[in-house]
Amino acid sequence: LYANTYLFVQPSDYEGLSVALLEAMSHGAAVLVSNIEANLETVKDAGFVFAAGDVIDLTDKIRYLLSNPAAVAIKKEESILVVKKYYTWDKIAEEVESVYITARH
Fold it and tell me: Rounded CA gap, 50 and 77, in Å?
């Protein structure tokens, strides 16, 4: 499914780190997320953002992205790079290990 995705939209106002968002990014989907902290931390600069709860802003961004495939193509590549840099199992294991080491001292 993700391989043919043009745009993945994460409109949540409350959700924390979204596994679905990471999956979409790892498969090279361009993402449009609400501007809640968890989404911004996950996406970094590799996605498009709209104001949480603002249906007009969301609609405007979707319309813009549907008519600008070049902008979407750039973010598709950036999505993959963000996931490879910050969300590999090795990276997550290192961070968990760091928390345990810090807690022991």
Answer: 20
Half-sphere exposure of 101 (CA within 13 A, CB side): 6
| Model-wide pTM > 0.85 | yes
For the chain, list the domains and their CATH numbers.
Answer: 2-104 (3.40.50.2000)
Read off φ and ψ for residue 4, nearest 5 degrees: -105, 10
Q: Is 32 within 8 Å of 63 (Cβ atoms)?
A: no
Q: Where are the alpha helices (DSSP H) in 1-105?
A: 19-26, 37-43, 55-66, 69-86, 89-104
Mean pLDDT in runs of 10 for the chain (105 residues)? Answer: 89 90 95 97 96 98 98 96 92 89 88
